[in-house]
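Appendix B. Chain record.
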Amino acid sequence: MKCIGCDNDIPNGVKFCPVCGARQPQPAPVPPRNMPPQPQYNGYNGNNAQACTGEISSPKYVDFGDAIKLFFINYVNFKGRSTRSEYWFAFLFTMIVYICCWLIDFVLPVKVCTTIAQMTFLVPTLSILFRRFHDTGRTGTFVIINYIVGLVWGVLLVVFGILALFAAFGADLSPKSIDVSPANFFEMFGLIGLFGLIPFGMNVYQIVVCCTPSVSYENKYGRAPF
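C-alpha cells predicted for this chain:
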C-alpha cells in the first residue's frame, strides 16, 4: 500500500508510516456473516421490551398497564415466572380496586362490592404469587400452605370470638368439653395469639420473597426475564 503522506510503499495494515510517520486510514470492520441483529433492552422499560418482542408475555420487566394485562391473561396460570415489576404493579392495581370497593360499600346499603372483588382476585392473586416464587427459584407450594394456615387461624378467631361472647354473657351454649369460663378466657386468648405468630411469620417471609430479584438465568420454571 502507498503512504498518503510521502507516497512510499509501506506494509499493509500499519497505522503510521514508518518513513514519514503519517497516520494511515484504516478499513471499516466487517461484521461477521450470518449473525442476526441483537435487540437492545433497557432494563425495566416495559414498552421497549414489548417493542423488541412484538408481544406481551412473561417474564419481562413491565409497566403498570402491561402488568394488569398479564394479571388477567395469566388468570389461572400457576406455571412459569413473574418479575417483581409484574407482581407489585398487579398488587397496586388490586389495592386500588379494593379501596374503591370499600368506598362504594360504605355508601351503598348492600355491602357486596368488596366481596365480589375478593372472589374475582382470589385465583389470579394466588397464581401470580406462584409465578413470583418460581421467578426466584422457589416452589409455589408455600403459597398454598400459607393460605391454608391463614384460613385456619381466621376460623379459630371466629370460634374464639363466639366463645368469648358466651363467657361474657354467662351463657353456656358451647359443648360440655369446652370450658369458656372467665378463668380460661385469657388462656385461650394466649393460645390463639401464639398460633397467630405462625401465619404472621409466613406472611413476612412471603413479602420478602416477592421483593427478591429475579434469578438472572433460565430455571425449571421458565426463561430468564429481560
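Further analysis of this model is presented in Appendix C.
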